[in-house]
Amino acid sequence: MKRGGSLDNQLLFYTVTIIAVLNLLAYFSIGDWRSIGWFVVAGLCMYVLSMSKTLAILVAVLGGALCRSVYVEGMTKKSKNKMDELKDIMNGANLEGLAQKADTMVKRQKDLFHMANKMGPLMKQASTMMKQLPEGFLEKAMEQMGKREKK
After folding, report:
1. What is the CA radius of gyration of the chain?
2. Please, are residues 22 and 61 in contact by the beta-carbon 8 Å criterion?
3. Residue 147 three-state SS
4. Residue 135 — φ and ψ, nearest 5°?
5. In the predicted structure, residue 4 carries a pLDDT above the cut 80
């Protein structure tokens, strides 16, 4: 029975060690130095207090994970791009922002409609002027412009 218990302890030790190494690699790959620091500090403190390698590694993994979840994912404000802000607004995370964006869009739409109304008479006048041009005038003008660009 004692021999089986020792084998179980070795299996547990190797499993926890593999998990710890994978966590460290993940922390290094994203440059999370705070979690790496907590990983090392928690592991060393637990090793000094308990002299059990398995428990020390397990506490180190938990210390790094806890630091990651509290400091990096919970307390830091990540910079947001326009799409993230738009997603927050559309999800109702910022109702005041949604109201302001809606007001801005309504004002822009009114401005565009007003400009389009002003362009109507100008477009009619341009159309009338183009109808008064001799037939083939625009085609000849375009050919002349094409010849100038080739030179």
Report:
1. 35
2. no
3. helix
4. -65, 135
5. no
